[in-house]
C-alpha cells in the first residue's frame, strides 16, 4: 500500500493586510453579489476576475426553479472570460458569498466550479490566485486553484496512449 498525501495551503488575511488590487477585486465581487438571482436558496455569490490585460469580468450565481439548470458565479465569470477574451489569461479571481445569516467565513467553490477553474489554470499554464470571503470577516487566499482541488481530473487523462 502507498499513501498519497497532499497539503492545501490557504493564507488568511484581514482586509487591511491585502494589497490594493486584491481589496479592489474583493469589493467588485461584493458589489456583483447583489445582482445574483437566488430567489430559492437566498444564498448569493459574486465572482470577479482580472485578466492579464487588466479587464475585469464579473459573474453572479443564477438560479433556476429546475435547480440543475442554474449556474454558479464562478463559472458565469470564467465562461464569460473564455467566450469574450479567449486569448487572455486569468490572473486572479475573488469569490464572495452573502447570506441572510452572518457568514463570517469564506465558502469554498463547489466541485464543478473548482474543476472549471483548474482547467483554465492548466490550459493557460499559469496559476490563478483565488481570494475567498463571506459576508464579512477574514479572507482566504490561495496562490493557485490547485490548492482547492488536489488530484484534479485533467484533460491529459482523456488522451489515448
The total of beta strands comes to 6
CATH topology tier name: Cytidine Deaminase, domain 2
The CATH homology group name: Cytidine Deaminase, domain 2
Shape: globular
Overall number of domains: 1
Name the average pLDDT.
93
Q: What is the CATH architecture descriptor?
A: 3-Layer(aba) Sandwich
- Give the H and E element order: EHEEHEHEE
SS-based class = alpha+beta
Percent strand equals 15-25%
- Strand line-up of the largest beta sheet: 1-6-5-4-2-3
CATH class: Alpha Beta
Radius of gyration: 16 Å
Distance, first to last CA: 26 Å
Q: Count of helical segments?
A: 3
Feature tags:
globular; 161 residues; six-stranded mixed β-sheet; 6 strands; Cytidine Deaminase, domain 2; single chain
Describe the structure.
Helix content is 25%, strand content 21%. The radius of gyration is 16 Å and the shape is globular. The chain is built from 3 helices and 6 strands. It is of the alpha+beta class and 161 residues long. It has a single domain (11-156), classed as Cytidine Deaminase, domain 2 (3-Layer(aba) Sandwich), CATH 3.40.140. The chain has helices at residues 20-33, 73-84, 111-124; strands at 11-13, 44-51, 56-60, 90-98, 129-133, 139-142. A 6-stranded mixed β-sheet has the order 1-6-5-4-2-3.
Amino acid at each position: 500500500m502507498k499513501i498519497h498525501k497532499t497539503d492545501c495551503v490557504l493564507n488568511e488575511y484581514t482586509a487591511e493586510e491585502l494589497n490594493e488590487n486584491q481589496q479592489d477585486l474583493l469589493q467588485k465581487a461584493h458589489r456583483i453579489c447583489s445582482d445574483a438571482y437566488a430567489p430559492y436558496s437566498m444564498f448569493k455569490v459574486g465572482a470577479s476576475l482580472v485578466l492579464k490585460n487588466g479587464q475585469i469580468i464579473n459573474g453572479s450565481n443564477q438560479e433556476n426553479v429546475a435547480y440543475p439548470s442554474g449556474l454558479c458565479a464562478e463559472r458565469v465569470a470564467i465562461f464569460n472570460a473564455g467566450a469574450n477574451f479567449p486569448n487572455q489569461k486569468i490572473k486572479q479571481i475573488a469569490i464572495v458569498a452573502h447570506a441572510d445569516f452572518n457568514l463570517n467565513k469564506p465558502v469554498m467553490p463547489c466541485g464543478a466550479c473548482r474543476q472549471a477553474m483548474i482547467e483554465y489554470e492548466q490550459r493557460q499554464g499559469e496559476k490563478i490566485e483565488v481570494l475567498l470571503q463571506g459576508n464579512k470577516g477574514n479572507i482566504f487566499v490561495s496562490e493557485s486553484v490547485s490548492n482547492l482541488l488536489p488530484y484534479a481530473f485533467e484533460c491529459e487523462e482523456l488522451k489515448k496512449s
